[in-house]
């Protein structure tokens, strides 16, 4: 007798728990179970929809990165002289030891790099500030040509 009562109370607790999960207002067991099943089915459909949306976003992301790899951006090697300093901005395709080649070109020209920012996530980009060590008046065109030669030595196409 005690086991029947225990089973009945545990059954009621479980049904009460299910009714609170599914927000069911019904008192009857059958309708409560149907509401719980309906709620589970709706949750399953939402989960499938989220999964489809995730797959679509991942496909778009992959297409974006594929396009980014093949994208050609206009060439850019820009050298400006601000006082005694040269401000150099370079953008080109990734690959090779471009940074080393550019720094070697600076060394050959007698330029000392004071500050440099380099990014090579999807393409190579560099912004550097260099000062003439020998206090010679180095021309902007000479610096530009040296950088172009250094990049082409590595076989990199400018973006």
UniProtKB/TrEMBL annotation:
It comes from the Eukaryota. Residues 76-152 form the Plant bHLH transcription factor ACT-like domain. One of its GO terms (molecular function) is sequence-specific DNA binding. The keyword DNA-binding applies. It is found in: Nucleus. Keywords: DNA-binding, Nucleus. GO terms for cellular component: nucleus. Its main location: nucleus. PANTHER family: TRANSCRIPTION FACTOR BHLH35-LIKE PROTEIN (PTHR31945:SF27), TRANSCRIPTION FACTOR SCREAM2-RELATED (PTHR31945). This is Plant bHLH transcription factor ACT-like domain-containing protein. It comes from Hibiscus trionum (Flower of an hour). The lineage of its organism: Eukaryota, Viridiplantae, Streptophyta, Embryophyta, Tracheophyta.
